[in-house]
Amino acid sequence: xxxxxxxxxxxxxxxxLNSNAKLIGITGPSGAGKSSLLxxxxxxxxxxxxxxxxxxxxxxxxxxxxxxxxxxPMLFPHLTVKGNLALAQQYASANAASYAxxxxxxxxxxxxxxxxxxxxxxxxxxxxxxxxxxNGPNVLLLDESLSALDIGLRxxxxxxxxxxxxxxxxxxxxxxxxxxxxxxxxxxxxxxEDQGLSYAGAAQDALYYLNNxxxxxxxxxxxxxxxxxxxxxxxxxxxxxxxxxxxxDDNNDVGVxxxxxxxxxxxxxxGDGTASGLLDGYLCVDVLGHTLYAEAAxxxxxxxxxxxxxxxxxxxxxxxxxxxxxxxxxxxxxxIVNALPCTISEIKRDGLMGNxxxxxxxxxxxxxxxxxxxxxxxxxxxxxxxxxxxNLRKGMRVVARFKMLRV
Length: 407
Description:
One of its GO terms (biological process) is molybdate ion transport. By secondary structure, this protein is α+β, with helices and mostly antiparallel strands.
């Protein structure tokens, strides 16, 4: 996918992205040109010079339909919610999602008979997104269109949109200031600063760029893995160091360490008959041959649970990661049992915990269990005291430990 946009004094960029990317996230400071970019791509800026090749799944789409949803919902006030949706359906393309699927996925069933004036900000945003989806766009542009939603609802709607991009000939370009959301749901990210493009690439690479070129407090990394069906855990996580396999304890602090298996082979059947990777609310995830547990967040009614083999991202903030210099990942003497063997690749001192140089950001290369696989990056923020007491240094082999994550 390629596009070039030039709008005097507002935005100028030229980028080439992976043609397989379905969700493209955009971030940057206020006033950088993000909204101008979306307006230009939607054809709303007459003076903009725009060249674009969307690389849509269906080659016969000569003039793709583009839908743009603003932060402030542009709904027709003289119609009810149902009336707004019906109007979009009148002009819908053949590839539009079904009415039932959209109202479930956007969680607006209870709002259908409400007047627009009675909607809250978050309700209005969900109705506006639903209306755009029912029109069947090939490209959906979201300009901070989920900013009024609470985090749980926002994740469910984003998961639904992600699912639709897999099912329909549709791409989504969305603007957000929430880097964790962007990292979790975007295939690629654009970072826009000073009316131009600062960086474009895969989400984890964009985060690496941000973490190394800004002083943001909430640094985090993304682990890429895949869901593994519980019955396959014996192969992926054979016990080591004589530690017997066991199921996680019934408390919120427990994850799973590399090397811990599961005694029972149980799974969940999804609505289409395929096997889900869920196990009693836990999700089993393989990352570079190491097995982790995550807590499966509740999805909306229209979202299919993750199935065996599905790609998945785990977002981990630097403050959640502890460094253990004892390199036995199978230790069972602590409740923080998600564990990954790592090598320290860099130590950056900062002053984010108080005065200058009172803390450090440690970059960790996760060691693949099998040779030939590329390592992934984790971040840990530690105090200067811990840095000194543990004698942490570049090239040192350690274990990164963190509690169970929610995905």
